Here is the input.
Amino acid sequence: MPDISRRDFLNGLAFTGAAATLPASVVLAASPGLYPPALTGLRGSHPGAYEQAHQLAWGGQRPAGKPVAPAEQYDLVVTGAGISGLAAAYFYRQQYPAAKVLLLDNHDDFGGHARRNEFSVGGKTLISYGGTQSFDHPGSYSKVASKLLRELGIDLPALAQAYDLQYFQRHGMSSGVFYDAAHFGRNVLLRSAQPTTDAPSAQAAAWLPGMLDAPRFADTLARAPLNAAQRRQLQAVLAGGAQPALAAWLRDGKRAPRFEQLRYTDLLREVYGIRDTALLLLLSMPLAEDAALGGNAITLPLALEGGLLGLPSAARLADWLDDDSLLPTEDETEDDAEGDALYVHHFPDGNATLARLLVQRLIPTVAKVTNPVQSVAAAFDYRKLDQADSPVRLRLRSLVVEAVNQGQGVRVRYLRDGKLYEATARHSVMAGWHMLAAHILPELPASQKAAMRANLKLPLVYVQVALRRWPAFQRAGVAAAYCPGSFFQFVQLDFPVRMAAVAPPANTDQPVVLLMIRMPCPPLGEGEVPDLLRQGRAELLGADFASYENQVRQQLQAMYGAHGFDAKRDIAAITVNRWAHGYTWEDAQYQGEPAHTLAARPLGRIVMAGTDSTGRAYTDAAIDAAWQALRQLPRP
Here is the structure.
């Protein structure tokens, strides 16, 4: 039977001496700089992208010695070629059209988390994404972010129309819940909504729009693999039967003043008496994909906002605690009324199209593109990213290790292929992770470095699985599944987008891409959030491709095997997008204030961009941060 066709050599062996023993055609296919989106195996925080950064952060010493070449001179040097870094370069060139710009990024591809994944299956090219999925609530974007999208030709109404809202309905598919044998005794996949107070239609609108409404979670329990005690406890939570006890628990003099720090799982344990690991996972993990946190890290405010079960309404809670700030804001009410929550503003490669459009505007020779639709299918020539005759150069696999103010400009040093290089510029934008910036900006005040280190990011894993066929998914009737006890907590078929030559498969015997999401923050781990995040990051970076592949095969077989799925036959390829520093932790604090407020302060001619500067891990925040950073730059 057929097996996985390409793996990026399990751990990036094509980038080491081991490549010498491989066929030339294979080495060429994996050669960095040719076409990274087509590489499979370990991507995102891929081997070679982070090791030297960890040495800098953990060892505390920058590379010694002199640069191997004379310093190159630019008007602007940008650290980080994600959306914020690219937007900063774009805005700078608008302000100074003749400016020379250098962008440096430690990865072998641009876009940051807005990364493109490609597969070739049965002669068909499948396009998907390695991180940032869609434009979320674009109606609430700032004037700056909205204007940038318009300038790049992104038509949001047309983008929404490209999403086939009837696709999953035609295939008779809805959402589901997967109860795994390790926690619930048997592997059972049920058509079901998630265990939240949101209506099934609202869940679908914000998750995978177009699915049929799933049965309400409460209506599926008779078929779920639960014992009598588990059913009784779930019914109590569903009915809010512990309301008097809940009110007393919340209004306790020791708890009420620190409501924002109370944990949802503590409420489940202490009010509802739930000690069962399976039930704790089932009830506490619906927010894992949005928050990238395990159940024990979900606070009561976050649980209330996410509609987790067993809590009173916001109005009742506000009354109990005499705190009107717990009521929904007017903006939230307006968003719901406008229907802006429908999650349909999606390119086939997610927001990688935005990154590609920015790169093409900065470096026109990289691709012949005049509009976003052409960009989706265009072949980008990565050899054109760093040409000596181009006013804008994008240099990949280049880790910035030091940036300092120097006279009327900035000196930036970076490592590439193990060698130290240097560039000088009038201005510099730091659009990478704050945790690393704290180590490469020696002039920063100690308090700002501490705020940057506190401005944590959350690890997450997006695995894209190319399937040769998917009739088992249609037979199961489940296009997107919540899997609280499994290695991957969420599994979903790709968004059905029709654009250019890209279209969802016409039938289940054609190839399709499946997304599997893991939040490695220990679901029920003990400790504070920073400790849990470090544990999750260690797990993420410590696992090789074979481990992820094994988990993919086992879980999909357990979920869909009863409906005819055969992992060996049906899986064509796997791309593991690991993000050791993924979502921004919006609750990050330093000395009682949001960590990003102090961390984002400018340093002479060096200014801070990236979502770390905003405390929001969203595309519009990345754009806004770039604009705000440039406004802080001293004039040339």
User: Anything to note?
Assistant: The CA atoms of residues 5 and 142 lie 44 Å apart. The longest helix spans residues 545-560. The two ends are 64 Å apart (CA to CA). Residues 1-30, 333-339 have pLDDT under 50 and may be disordered.
